[in-house]
């Protein structure tokens, strides 16, 4: 991932010049957000408290519950960010499903940031089912407090290219991280996974 198209071109030139092989670069300047919620009046409907990019807070009232997020690549390019704050002694599951229509070409970028409290358990399940014409950039970060655990399960059955980064900070004593990743590659699909 590069900051802009010029940096990507410069890096491609560097690789060619030094015969270091090939790489795929995704310039952030080519990926844009959808501009937020188009129909803001939906926020005034009974039971609606806000949008996921501003309000995901897992507390004792949501203990043991699951948050479902569908990411559809139906625009040429789109991006989003979800920030999840998990309070002390809470178990929380997040399921992110990436898909799209085969008639759409483009890129989807999603950043999921998780901050856990003491003794918290977070399970993130990501399922990638995008068509060949859609590339996905998934960036996941998690910071773990004392006795907190983070489990990520990723299943790649889509046909589009995938660029996946996972960074976990085991800050707290006895914090734990587990990753279970499975994929089924197709044709000339790029699958690039980085764990830190």
Fold and architecture overview:
- It is a single chain.
- The strands form 2 sheets. A 6-stranded parallel β-sheet has the order 1-3-5-7-9-11. The protein has a 5-stranded parallel β-sheet with strand order 2-4-6-8-10, with no helix packed on it.
- With 196 residues, it is mostly beta strands.
- It starts with a helix and ends with a strand.
- Mean pLDDT is 78; it is low at 33-37.
- The chain has helices at residues 5-18, 52-55, and strands at 56-58, 66-72, 77-86, 91-99, 106-116, 121-128, 134-144, 149-156, 162-170, 176-183, 191-195.
- The chain is built from 2 helices and 11 strands.
Search tags:
2 helices; 196 residues; mainly beta; 11 strands; single chain
Strand element count: 11
Low-confidence stretches: 33-37
**What is the tally of helical segments?**
2
One letter per element, helices H and strands E, the order comes to HHEEEEEEEEEEE
Percentage beta strand? over 45%
- Biggest sheet, strands in spatial order? 1-3-5-7-9-11
Report the major sheet.
Answer: 6 strands, parallel
CA radius of gyration: 18 Å
Distance between the termini: 16 Å
Rounded average pLDDT: 78
Instruction: Give the class from helix and strand content and strand pairing.
Output: mainly beta
- Helical percentage: under 10%
Shape: globular
């Amino acid at each position: 991932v590069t900051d802009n198209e010029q940096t990507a071109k410069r890096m491609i030139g560097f690789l060619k010049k030094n015969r270091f092989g090939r790489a795929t670069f995704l310039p952030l300047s080519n990926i844009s957000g959808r501009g937020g919620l188009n129909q803001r009046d939906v926020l005034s409907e009974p039971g609606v408290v806000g949008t996921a990019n501003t309000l995901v807070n897992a507390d004792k009232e949501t203990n043991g519950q699951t948050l479902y997020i569908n990411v559809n690549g139906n625009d040429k390019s789109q991006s989003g960010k979800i920030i999840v704050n998990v309070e002390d002694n809470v178990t929380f599951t997040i399921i992110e499903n990436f898909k799209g229509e085969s008639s759409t070409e483009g890129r989807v970028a999603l950043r999921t940031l998780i901050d856990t409290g003491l003794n918290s358990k977070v399970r993130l399940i990501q399922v990638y089912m995008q068509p060949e014409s859609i590339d996905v950039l998934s960036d996941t970060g998690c910071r773990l407090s004392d006795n907190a655990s983070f489990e990520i399960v990723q299943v790649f059955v889509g046909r589009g290219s995938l660029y996946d980064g996972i960074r976990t900070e085991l800050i707290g004593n006895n914090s734990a991280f587990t990753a279970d990743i499975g994929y089924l590659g197709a044709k000339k699909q790029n699958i690039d996974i980085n764990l830190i």
